[in-house]
């Protein structure tokens, strides 16, 4: 009998609630989150069916006090990847975030972090594109132009993850603020 299963993670930045609900459904079937597997998968381990809820938090530099804060509130740390930390608790546990203001603060910090991660890739992308296009129009070595365009493509790939996350946090913040003031 299989004891490990890998399921797709569709993106915690944009689909946080949907992904946590999916993990809850799997726990009810006896498949419990064990960790992240690569960028876009969760690793689940077979166990007894349990009625758990999952929640996540972002903290760049967690320490023992950070994790004990959640433990004291009834939440067990399940796994972490970079600054993303997933916790689980019984269904009757109090939510980690009970007010919109604290959620907005959390997402603002993540948005800033993703922006900082995206800037070097964006600068590299623009510079390599300019170098490649300028070289093309000035008739400079074709291999150098192709190399510059290739580096621009690599920079674009590097920009995708933090860029998409930045956009997703922006959308989430816009929606939270709209709900807060309506």
List the SSEs and their pairings.
Layout: E1 4-8, H1 12-28, E2 31-36, E3 41-46, E4 52-58, H2 64-72, E5 76-81, E6 84-90, H3 100-138, H4 142-180
Antiparallel strand pairs: 1-3, 2-3, 4-6, 5-6
Explain what the structure shows:
The chain has four helices and six strands. By secondary structure, the chain is an alpha+beta fold. It has two domains: 4-90, no CATH class; 100-180, no CATH class. The strands form two sheets. It has a three-stranded antiparallel beta sheet, with helices on one face. A three-stranded antiparallel beta sheet has the order 4-6-5. Strand 2 (31-36) and strand 3 (41-46) form a beta hairpin. Helix 3 packs antiparallel against helix 4 (142-180). It comes from Oceanobacillus indicireducens. The chain crosses the membrane at residues 118-140, 146-169.
